[in-house]
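[Q] Does anyone have a clean C-alpha coordinate version of this?
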Amino acid sequence: MKNVGIVRRLDELGRIVIPREFRKTHRINVGDPLEIMATESGNIIITKVDTISDLTTLCETACASLAAELSMTIAGASFDKILAASGQGRSILNDKELSSAVSKMLKSRGFFSGAADSEEILGLVNAGFNFVCVVPIQSYDDCFGGLIAFSNKEISGFDAAALKLAGRLVGDTLAKY
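[A] Here you go.
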Protein backbone atom coordinates (compact mmCIF):
# COMPACT_ATOMS: atom_id res chain seq x y z
CA MET A 1 0.00 0.00 0.00
CA LYS A 2 1.35 3.39 -0.98
CA ASN A 3 1.52 6.02 1.75
CA VAL A 4 -0.54 9.07 0.91
CA GLY A 5 -0.04 12.13 3.06
CA ILE A 6 -1.65 15.51 3.45
CA VAL A 7 0.19 18.33 5.18
CA ARG A 8 -1.74 20.15 7.89
CA ARG A 9 -0.54 22.91 10.19
CA LEU A 10 -0.88 22.91 13.95
CA ASP A 11 -3.11 25.74 15.19
CA GLU A 12 -2.43 27.99 18.19
CA LEU A 13 -4.26 25.56 20.52
CA GLY A 14 -2.17 22.57 19.38
CA ARG A 15 -4.89 21.03 17.19
CA ILE A 16 -4.75 19.49 13.76
CA VAL A 17 -7.68 18.61 11.53
CA ILE A 18 -7.95 15.11 10.12
CA PRO A 19 -9.17 15.64 6.56
CA ARG A 20 -12.72 14.60 5.74
CA GLU A 21 -11.48 12.17 3.07
CA PHE A 22 -9.36 10.33 5.67
CA ARG A 23 -12.21 10.26 8.19
CA LYS A 24 -14.63 8.92 5.58
CA THR A 25 -12.21 6.33 4.15
CA HIS A 26 -11.22 5.04 7.59
CA ARG A 27 -14.71 5.36 9.13
CA ILE A 28 -13.64 7.80 11.83
CA ASN A 29 -16.65 9.54 13.34
CA VAL A 30 -17.04 12.37 15.82
CA GLY A 31 -16.41 10.97 19.28
CA ASP A 32 -14.36 7.95 18.13
CA PRO A 33 -11.35 7.31 20.37
CA LEU A 34 -7.95 7.87 18.75
CA GLU A 35 -4.63 6.84 20.26
CA ILE A 36 -1.64 9.16 19.76
CA MET A 37 1.82 7.58 20.04
CA ALA A 38 5.34 8.85 19.45
CA THR A 39 8.10 6.60 18.16
CA GLU A 40 11.73 6.79 19.26
CA SER A 41 12.58 8.33 15.91
CA GLY A 42 10.18 11.22 16.57
CA ASN A 43 7.27 10.14 14.34
CA ILE A 44 3.77 10.65 15.68
CA ILE A 45 1.24 7.92 14.92
CA ILE A 46 -2.52 8.36 15.30
CA THR A 47 -4.49 5.10 15.46
CA LYS A 48 -8.23 4.54 15.65
CA VAL A 49 -9.04 2.51 18.78
CA ASP A 50 -11.35 -0.45 18.19
CA THR A 51 -13.81 -0.42 21.08
CA ILE A 52 -16.43 -2.59 19.31
CA SER A 53 -14.85 -5.91 20.27
CA ASP A 54 -14.49 -4.80 23.90
CA LEU A 55 -18.04 -3.40 23.86
CA THR A 56 -19.37 -6.68 22.46
CA THR A 57 -17.64 -8.75 25.14
CA LEU A 58 -18.86 -6.52 27.97
CA CYS A 59 -22.39 -6.40 26.52
CA GLU A 60 -22.55 -10.20 26.33
CA THR A 61 -21.81 -10.43 30.05
CA ALA A 62 -24.06 -7.53 31.07
CA CYS A 63 -26.97 -8.70 28.92
CA ALA A 64 -26.81 -12.26 30.27
CA SER A 65 -26.78 -11.03 33.88
CA LEU A 66 -29.55 -8.46 33.37
CA ALA A 67 -31.76 -10.87 31.42
CA ALA A 68 -31.48 -13.45 34.21
CA GLU A 69 -32.14 -10.97 37.02
CA LEU A 70 -34.86 -8.88 35.38
CA SER A 71 -36.58 -11.74 33.48
CA MET A 72 -36.65 -9.87 30.18
CA THR A 73 -34.70 -9.73 26.94
CA ILE A 74 -31.70 -7.41 27.03
CA ALA A 75 -29.58 -6.25 24.09
CA GLY A 76 -26.33 -4.31 23.94
CA ALA A 77 -25.79 -2.11 20.93
CA SER A 78 -23.26 0.12 19.24
CA PHE A 79 -24.70 3.25 17.64
CA ASP A 80 -25.81 1.35 14.57
CA LYS A 81 -26.60 -2.28 15.44
CA ILE A 82 -27.22 -4.78 18.21
CA LEU A 83 -23.98 -6.52 19.20
CA ALA A 84 -25.25 -9.00 21.82
CA ALA A 85 -28.60 -10.10 23.18
CA SER A 86 -29.76 -12.42 25.92
CA GLY A 87 -33.15 -13.74 26.93
CA GLN A 88 -36.21 -14.89 25.04
CA GLY A 89 -36.12 -13.77 21.40
CA ARG A 90 -32.40 -12.98 21.37
CA SER A 91 -31.94 -14.68 17.99
CA ILE A 92 -34.33 -12.16 16.42
CA LEU A 93 -32.29 -9.25 17.80
CA ASN A 94 -28.68 -10.24 17.15
CA ASP A 95 -27.09 -8.06 14.42
CA LYS A 96 -30.34 -6.10 13.93
CA GLU A 97 -29.67 -2.55 12.76
CA LEU A 98 -30.91 0.34 14.88
CA SER A 99 -32.90 3.15 13.37
CA SER A 100 -31.36 6.58 12.98
CA ALA A 101 -33.73 7.83 15.71
CA VAL A 102 -32.36 5.37 18.29
CA SER A 103 -28.80 5.97 17.12
CA LYS A 104 -29.30 9.71 17.56
CA MET A 105 -30.90 9.14 20.99
CA LEU A 106 -27.92 7.09 22.17
CA LYS A 107 -25.33 9.54 20.81
CA SER A 108 -27.06 12.34 22.71
CA ARG A 109 -27.21 10.12 25.82
CA GLY A 110 -30.99 10.03 25.71
CA PHE A 111 -33.27 7.68 27.64
CA PHE A 112 -36.58 6.12 26.63
CA SER A 113 -38.92 3.78 28.47
CA GLY A 114 -42.42 2.98 27.34
CA ALA A 115 -44.67 1.13 24.94
CA ALA A 116 -43.05 -0.26 21.83
CA ASP A 117 -46.09 0.56 19.71
CA SER A 118 -43.92 1.99 16.94
CA GLU A 119 -41.39 -0.82 16.42
CA GLU A 120 -40.17 0.72 13.17
CA ILE A 121 -38.61 3.54 15.20
CA LEU A 122 -36.30 1.01 16.82
CA GLY A 123 -35.63 -0.76 13.55
CA LEU A 124 -36.88 -3.94 15.18
CA VAL A 125 -39.88 -4.86 13.07
CA ASN A 126 -41.44 -8.20 14.09
CA ALA A 127 -39.47 -8.36 17.33
CA GLY A 128 -42.77 -9.02 19.13
CA PHE A 129 -42.27 -7.03 22.34
CA ASN A 130 -44.79 -4.63 23.86
CA PHE A 131 -42.45 -2.49 25.97
CA VAL A 132 -38.91 -1.21 25.56
CA CYS A 133 -36.35 0.75 27.57
CA VAL A 134 -33.28 2.33 25.93
CA VAL A 135 -30.34 3.64 28.00
CA PRO A 136 -26.88 4.81 26.89
CA ILE A 137 -23.67 2.98 27.72
CA GLN A 138 -21.66 5.92 28.97
CA SER A 139 -18.85 7.10 31.13
CA TYR A 140 -18.55 10.71 32.21
CA ASP A 141 -17.00 11.94 28.96
CA ASP A 142 -17.77 9.16 26.51
CA CYS A 143 -20.77 7.33 25.11
CA PHE A 144 -20.22 3.95 23.45
CA GLY A 145 -23.69 2.66 22.54
CA GLY A 146 -26.64 1.48 24.57
CA LEU A 147 -28.51 -1.22 26.44
CA ILE A 148 -32.06 -2.01 25.38
CA ALA A 149 -34.57 -3.98 27.44
CA PHE A 150 -37.52 -5.68 25.72
CA SER A 151 -40.54 -7.02 27.57
CA ASN A 152 -44.17 -7.95 27.17
CA LYS A 153 -44.95 -6.37 30.55
CA GLU A 154 -44.42 -2.73 31.51
CA ILE A 155 -40.82 -1.96 32.48
CA SER A 156 -40.68 -0.70 36.06
CA GLY A 157 -38.63 2.18 37.40
CA PHE A 158 -36.47 -0.35 39.24
CA ASP A 159 -35.76 -2.24 36.01
CA ALA A 160 -34.90 1.02 34.21
CA ALA A 161 -32.58 2.02 37.08
CA ALA A 162 -30.83 -1.37 36.92
CA LEU A 163 -30.36 -0.91 33.17
CA LYS A 164 -28.95 2.61 33.66
CA LEU A 165 -26.53 1.33 36.31
CA ALA A 166 -25.35 -1.47 34.03
CA GLY A 167 -24.88 1.05 31.19
CA ARG A 168 -22.74 3.19 33.47
CA LEU A 169 -20.65 0.21 34.67
CA VAL A 170 -20.01 -1.01 31.11
CA GLY A 171 -19.17 2.57 30.04
CA ASP A 172 -16.79 3.14 32.94
CA THR A 173 -15.04 -0.16 32.17
CA LEU A 174 -14.64 0.79 28.48
CA ALA A 175 -13.33 4.24 29.41
CA LYS A 176 -10.43 2.63 31.28
CA TYR A 177 -9.16 0.86 28.12
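[Q] Thanks! Anything notable?
[A] The chain has a mean pLDDT of 86.
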